[in-house]
Amino acid sequence: MAFRQILLRVMLWSLGIAAAVGAFAMLFFQEEMIWRVVATAVNTAVCAAAMLGFSVLSERDKSRTAGLLGVAFVAAEFLLILLLIWIVDAQLGLEGQILGTIGAVAAGAVPGMIMLRVRESPRAKVAATLGLILSGCELLMLLVTAWIFDPYWHIGHGVNDRLLESAGVLALLGPLAVGSLVGHGFDRQHWRLIGVGAAALAYAMALSGIWLDLRGGNAFTVVTTVAVYVTLANIVMLCPLKREQQWLRIGVLGCAALTAILLDLNIIYGLHGGSEMLVRLPGAFGIVTACGCLALAVLVMLNRRVQLKPIVADFKQFTLICPACQKKQTLPAGETCCGNCGLKIHTRFEEPRCATCGYLLYMLKSDRCPECGTAIDSGHGRGNPAPTRDISTAHDTAG
C-alpha cells in the first residue's frame, strides 16, 4: 500500500509541476524549454499511473510475474521517452533509434506480460512458454533493426526493412502456433500439433519470400488457412459447454471449415470472374463463424459461475438428526457428541475443488472445470479429492 501511495503522490506532484513550471516557462523561457519541461512532467504522471496499475497486478498470486514485468516495462519506457524529450535537436541523430527502441520494448513486453499471466494456467503453460520465446525473438529483431541495421549508420542496406517484415509476419503467425498449443499435455489431442507445424511452415515460406524472393503463392495461402483453422478448432474444443449446447460447437467448426475451403478455392482457382455466389459464400460462412464464436464466448461466461469466496470456512456448527436417538439438534463442527444419547460425532467440511488446478467448484453445474477444462467426476460431486482443503474447526469432545 505504501508503494501505491508513493506512486499516487508522484502523479499529483508531476501534474502540479507541469502546471506551475509550464505557466512559469511560458512567461520567462523560450518555447523549446517550455514543451520539454511540460512533456517531462506529463510523462512522469502517465508512467506513474501505468506503474500503479501494474503494481496492483504484482500483488496477486496469479499475476505477480506479469505485474513485475509491467513495472519494469513502464520504467524502461519512462527513461526512453525522457531521453527522447531532452535529446531532440541535440544533433546526435539518435531520435530514430530511440523511437524504434520504444516500439520494440512495447512490442515485446506487452505480449510477454500476457503470456506470463496465461502461463499460470496449467493447460496453457506450454503454449505460453512458446509465446514468451516468440516475444523475445520479436523484441530482438526490432532492436537489431533500430540500432544495427539502421540507415543512419549506413550498415546493411535494405536489411532493416526485411527484418521489420520478418518481425511483422512473426507477430501475425506466432499467435497461431501459441493458440494451437493450448491444452497440450493434458489430453491426447495430438491433432493440434498440425496447427503448430502449419504455422511454422507458413513462417518459413514467408521468410523465404522476404529474404530470398521466393514466392510460395497459393501454397502459402493453404498452409496459413490450415494453421488458422486448427487454432480456432483447438480453442473452440476447449470451451466448456453443456450437453445441450454442443450443437453450437459443431456448427462453428463446420462453418469455419467451409469458410477456409471456399476461400482457398477462390484464391487458388481465381473464381472472381466466375459465379458471384461462389465469391460471396466464404464471406457468408465467415460471418456465421464469427457470430458463432461470439456466441460461444457468451455461453462460456454464462456457464461459468463467479468464483465465490469459500463460505464453508465460516461453518462453525451444523444441524443434524442423531442416527441413534433420532433427536434433532445443532452441534459444533469437528469433534462433538449427541447431547441426548452421547453418541460421539466427528464432522469435517471440505471445499469441492478441481483435481488439476484447484479451482473452487462450489455450486458448479457444468461437467468441466471452468478454469482448466478438466472433466469433473460425478462421484462426490466435483472432481477427485486431491486438492481439497480441510477447513473444519476442532472442538474438545463434549459429554
Describe the fold and architecture:
With 399 residues, this protein is mainly alpha-helical. The protein has a domain at 308-399. Helix content is 61%, strand content 4%. It contains ten helices and four strands, in the order ααααααααααββββ. It has helices spanning 2-28, 31-58, 64-87, 95-118, 125-147, 159-181, 192-211, 218-238, 246-269, 276-303, and strands spanning 317-321, 328-332, 335-337, 344-346. The strands form two sheets. The protein has a two-stranded antiparallel sheet. Strands 3-4 form a two-stranded antiparallel sheet. The radius of gyration is 29 Å and the shape is flat. Residues 379-399 have low confidence and may be disordered.
**Weakly predicted, low-confidence segments:** 379-399
Strand order of the largest sheet: 1-2
Shape: flat
Give the % helix.
55-70%
Radius of gyration: 29 Å
The main sheet comes to: 2 strands, antiparallel
Number of strands: 4
What's the overall average pLDDT, rounded? 80
Distance between the ends? 49 Å
Could you spell the SSE succession in H and E letters? HHHHHHHHHHEEEE
The total of helices stands at 10
Percent of residues in β-strands: under 5%
The secondary-structure class comes to mainly alpha
Brief synopsis:
The protein has 399 residues and is mainly alpha-helical. The chain has helices at residues 2-28, 31-58, 64-87, 95-118, 125-147, 159-181, 192-211, 218-238, 246-269, 276-303, and strands at residues 317-321, 328-332, 335-337, 344-346.
State the main characteristics.
two-stranded antiparallel ribbon, 399 residues, disordered C terminus, single chain, flat
